[in-house]
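From the pipeline queue, job 12 of 40. The input is one protein chain; the requested action is below.

Action: predict structure.
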Amino acid sequence: MEKSYDFSGWATRNNLKCSDGRTILKDAFKHNDGQVVPMVWNHQHNDPHNVLGHALLENRKEGVYAYCTFNDTEVGRNVKLLVQHGDVSALSIYANQLKQQGGSVLHGAIREVSLVLAGANPGAFIDSVMSHGEESDEEAFIYTGEKLSLFHADETDKTDDEETIADVFDTLSEKQKTVVYAMLGQALGENLEGGNEEMKQNVFDKEDKKDTLSHVDMVGIIADAKRYGSLRDAVLAHGIENIDYLFPDAQNVMNDPQFIQRDMGWVRKVMTAVHNTPFSRIKSILADITEADARAKGYVKGNLKIEEVFSLLKRTTSPTTIYKKQKLDRDDIVDITDFDVVAWLKSEMRTMLDEELARAVLVGDGRLNSSDDKINEQNIRPIWTDADLYTIKTPVEHAANATADQKAKAFIRAAVKSRKNYKGSGSPILYATEDILTDCLLMEDTTGRVIYDSVDKLATALRVKEIITAPVMEGQTRVGADTKTYTLAGIIVNLTDYNVGADKGGAVNMFDDFDIDYNAQKYLIETRCSGALIKPYAAIALEFVEAAAG
């Protein structure tokens, strides 16, 4: 070459099978012969400061040879020193418009030559995604591990085998050293400032940097990600160890696992509203003075005075045990360190126990009478199906083809009219399904105006203190003595009239035990209690039922 240049070397070599099975054939880049392309640092062509100079390409039978010249920028001068002293000794090219047949690369266009910290493997390496057999705009990074030949345009005869790298490095200014530190730190993923950090390894020794990705590695990995479908697979394909450093485990956004559960707001309101006693056997004695014989009478002189006659009614409710049992393998307890799994499990057990009690109080547990797990309804008496003396059953009749508005209107009328029979304490609460509440709030008058634009206004119209929706009431049906199907829509009750009793020691208790044979920690939460309405006509059950035809 007549033109002076700073160094030369093989940009890529022919007939070398790459690790991905491709082979660059002779004259694949023949049309680049004699062209001058930019020379950049580590293929970082997104910043003009990374342009180090240019390279004159020469197509040879062995491959493409490059004669490289540094520019006079500060970065160009610094990298020139690195090349002069053997710190950087590998070239790479960036090419696109690739064409291949099978595993052979037939054609491509070299767009730039890069100085890189180390070639990916000796000889050459293509890191790309290419369409087989057809021309495409896909890109490739082709590396060579051949040694560079160093020439000095103005000092071609100078040799100095005695001068060490340290000697030359010491000739750099502090500003130049800072740039070198930054380049090396960027390659290592470290922050080396002022040269105070001790270098633990050879930054150009690829085999010793198993957990460090150079920029050249990452460029190839990103290109391969299109072919593999994911960045993670591309990293694995490149043989990167300890991949979890790059793809750490997902982190919980909450401290504890969250339960998928029904709305539990009604449970707390039920459990805090019921009347509690420190004894579990509940006896109710009632005197029925509604009969005519119980009325006071007028006296006629000389007639016999007749004694008042009324009947006494008695009901006794005894306790039953309600429990929930869980177990955890001790290995799991030890291994789970992200949160307190025992406390989390116990909170779940208490939540579910409270829900089961509240469900049993309102509507019963819903299990078949033959089930061993059923809560005995003679011990925890459901308000919905309690005796007529305690719960007033109010049918809400509707036509078979009734609209939602019609059913909602019938519900409101039945609820208001049934209040004359209510004998419970104070202002009751309506426990209803979400559907009936929604239908009532959507009712419109003849002008299309919503009649009840708030839950509070609807509660006032129904003569109740509050409306609480309970998901466990959804879909509850029973067959009456008349063989008709009754669907529960709401329960009006003041739970002060419902007594839950538990003897000392029968309240909610948590027990745990270790099973040494199965290495399992077992937990039990249970309560032994009774529950029943203690006032006559203390509740109203509103039930939808189809009206007789005609």
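Job complete. The first strand starts at residue 7 and ends at 13.
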